[in-house]
Amino acid sequence: MSLLRPLPVRTDPARPHRAAADVLVFLGAAGLLWLIVRLAHGTVTAWSPATAPATVSTDPGELPYYAGRSLLRMFAALALSVAFTFGYATAAARLRRAEKVLLPVLDILQSVPILGFLSVTITGFIALFPGSQLGLECAAVFAIFTSQAWNMAFAFHHSLVSQPRDLDEASRLLRLTRWQRFWRVDVPSGMIPLVWNGMMSFGGGWFFLTASEALSVDNRNYALPGVGAYVAAATAEGDLGKVLLAIGVMIVLVVGVNVLFWRPLTAWAERFRVENSEAAQAPRSVVLDLLRRSRVGVLLGRVFGPLVHPADRVTAVFGLADHPLRTSPARRRAGDVLFATAVLTLVGYGLVHAVGFVGETTGFAEVGHALLLGLVTFA
C-alpha cells in the first residue's frame, strides 16, 4: 500500500516572486505607454505663429505635465541620436575615403553653439508642419539632439575602429552579412562606451532645455510646455521661489531617469564586456533584477525571435561584411583622385553660393563683425 501513496508535489519557491515581477513589469509598461500617448497628444495640437503664446503658465500645478513633456523631448532626441550614431559612425568607420570628410564635419558640427542651429532650423520645421505645434516640437527636439549626437557618434566610431582583430576575423570566417555583423558584432562590442557616452550626452541635454523650449524666430518668441520654458517664464517674472521649484523638479527627473533607465542599462551593458579583467565593482540595478525575474523577456523573445532569420535573409542583399585585404595601388589612387575631385567640387560650389548669399543679404562688412565677436567668445 505504501507504493500507492501520492508523491509529494514540488513547488517552485520563486514562482510567487516571478508572478509579482510579471505584474509589476506589466503595470509599469502599461502606465508608461499610457503616459507617452497622453503626452504625445499635446504635440499635435493646432498652432499658429500669430496666436502662439510667448510664454507658459507659471502655475506650480502645471509642473508635472511640463516635466513629462520635457522628458518626452529628451528621449525623442536620444532615440534620434542613437539612429544618427549608428548610421554616421558606421559610415565613417567602414568607408575609408568618407572618413576623411565625415569626421571633420562632425568636429565642426559639435563646435557650433546650439543657438546657431536654432536660428537656421526653426523656420524650416514650422513650415514643414503648418498649423500644427509639431513643427515647433521638432525644432526643440532637434536642438536637444545637437547636444547629444556628436559625442555619441565619436564614441561609437572609436569603438568600431579599435575593434579587436579577432572579432573581424571571426566575422569573415562565419561569412556574416553587413547586417549581421552590425547587430551581432559591432553594436555589442561598442555597447559599453555607447551607453556611458549616451548617459553623459543625455545629462548635457538638460542644460539646453530653456534654449530649446523658449524659442525665438523673426523677432517673435514662442514657448513650449516644459520645465525649461517654466524656468524662463519664472525668471522673467523675477520669482526666485518658482525657479527653485522648477530646479527641484529637474533634480527629481534626473534621479528618476538614472534609477529607472540609465542604471539598469549600464548594468545590462556589462554583459558585453570583452576584457579579460572584470570591473572592480559591477553595476547593480533593482529595476534590472526585476526585469530579469519576470517572464516578459521570454515572452517577447517568443514573439520577435522568429523574425530574426527572415530579417537575415532579406538583408543579405547588402552583401557580406568583407573587404579585400589587398587592392591595386593604381586603382586605389584613381579612386582617391576621383573622390577628392568630387569633394572639392562640392565645397567650391557651396562657397560660391555662400559668398553670393552673404553679398546679397548682410554684406561682407558683417563678416568682420561676426568674426570679431567669435574671437571674443573664443577668448
TrEMBL record:
Signal peptide: none annotated. This is ABC transporter permease subunit. GO terms for cellular component: plasma membrane. Keywords: Membrane, Transmembrane, Transmembrane helix, Transport. The keyword 4Fe-4S does not apply. GO terms for biological process: transmembrane transport. Residues 67-261 form the ABC transmembrane type-1 domain. The chain crosses the membrane at residues 21-40, 71-89, 101-127, 182-209, 243-262, 337-358. It comes from the Bacteria. InterPro entries: MetI-like, MetI-like_sf. It is a multi-pass membrane protein. Gene3D superfamilies: MetI-like (1.10.3720.10). It is found in: Cell membrane; Membrane. Belongs to the binding-protein-dependent transport system permease family. It holds the Pfam family BPD_transp_1.
